[in-house]
Specification:
25% of the residues lie in helices and 34% in strands. The chain is α+β, with helices and mostly antiparallel strands.
């Protein structure tokens, strides 16, 4: 049996984890970003780490708006999907989001603003 050599290079397997905290409306909001090669996961929640739902958004060739779906959790969790879609559009990457705070439009607005600040300050995290 003849040996075969491969000229392929193994894929780089790398995850970068970055955390930051912001006090919003007297509540500590924790952010964790897990960056992969062409995608990232954003977890947003309180001190108690829980993953209640997860949504994903990515660009497709069908539509200029990213496609979004809930992977698990409550189907009514529109906040994770909405934020994933906005981040996928801004970064042109596949984005997973788990938003684990109470539903409050003002809070969500400030959380999103803080996340965008971090993206401008540390683009290498995303």
């Amino acid at each position: 049996m003849a040996s075969t050599e491969s000229n392929t290079t193994p894929a780089e397997c790398r995850f970068d984890v970055n955390n930051f905290v912001e006090t919003i409306f007297d509540q500590q909001v924790h952010f964790q970003v897990l960056r992969m090669k062409d995608s990232f996961i954003v977890w947003i929640g309180s001190e108690e780490a829980k993953l209640e739902g997860l949504a994903v958004a990515l660009k497709t060739n069908i539509d200029k708006e990213p496609s979004t779906t809930s992977l698990f959790g409550e189907n009514v969790d529109l906040l994770s999907g909405t934020l994933a879609k906005k981040l996928a559009k801004a970064t042109e990457k596949q984005v997973f989001v788990s938003y684990n705070l109470h539903v409050d439009q003002q809070l969500m607005s400030l959380v999103e603003k803080r996340l965008h600040e971090e993206m401008r300050t540390h683009p290498e995290w995303f």
